[in-house]
Amino acid sequence: ILYFQEPGVAEAEFEADVRRSLSLFTWGASGEARSVSGFASAMVNKPADSKLFEGLPDVEGVPPWMTEADLDYYVEKFEKGGFRGPINRYRCMDLDHEQLPEMQNRQIDLPALFVYGDADGALSFSPMDPMKQLVPNLKMVSFPGAGHWTQQERPKETNEALIDFLNGL
Question: Average pLDDT, stretch 2-13?
Fold first, then answer.
């Protein structure tokens, strides 16, 4: 997240080769990252001043849950619109706390569903215990081996979890 804070830095890296960037993103955050030698550790074990994709092994094609047509579509859209908008989300995280102080530590009493892959690297820096405490009616569904792209990696299981949750309301 720190890498994204300086406007233009991440955009320059990602937009230099949009196809490669998106390919590395999809592989790197997927459950399949562990199957590519050295990939998972190279994503997280980096010096603070390195680029995000620096030191990553090149990958061939797309993960098994994605098609080349999917990648072509994403490449077309990101070549047209760039990465600034999506990256800005990470730049504005502190604003959530500043502009919505009344929401901090507020309990959510409505039923909620959290679907996740147990191989999602985001879990290592985003513990779930606080979420369980703040959302007492939380149902959690974990998909073994799935990464950050849960709904793409496990579409059938994700839909089943959503339908089951909605039917239980």
Answer: 91
Which pLDDT belongs to residue 152? 96
Considering the domain architecture, whether residues 87 and 109 belong to the same structural domain is answered as: no
**Which residue has better confidence, 100 or 70?**
70
For the chain, the residue count is 169
Give 143: exposed, middle or buried? Use CB within 10 Å, 0-12, 13-18, 19+: buried
Final residue of a structural domain among 43, 62, 96: 96
Distance CA(60)–CA(53), nearest Å, equals 15
CA distances from 51 to 54, 92, 134 (A): 5, 20, 35
Number of helices (H) and strands (E) in the chain: give both, helices first.
Answer: 9, 2
Bridge partners of 46?
none
Q: What is the pTM of this model?
A: 0.85
Over residues 102-119, the pLDDT tens digits come to: 988 899 999 999 999 999
Integer distance in angstroms from the first to the last C-alpha of the chain?
36
Do 74 and 128 lie in a common domain?
A: no
Query: Which residues, in sequence order, are CB contacts of 62 under 8 Å at separation 6+?
Result: 23, 26, 27, 68, 70, 71
Amino acid identity of residue 45, one-letter, is N
Number of folded domains that form the chain: 2
**In the numeric block, which tokens belong to residue 108?**
């959510």
State which residues form the domain around 123.
105-167
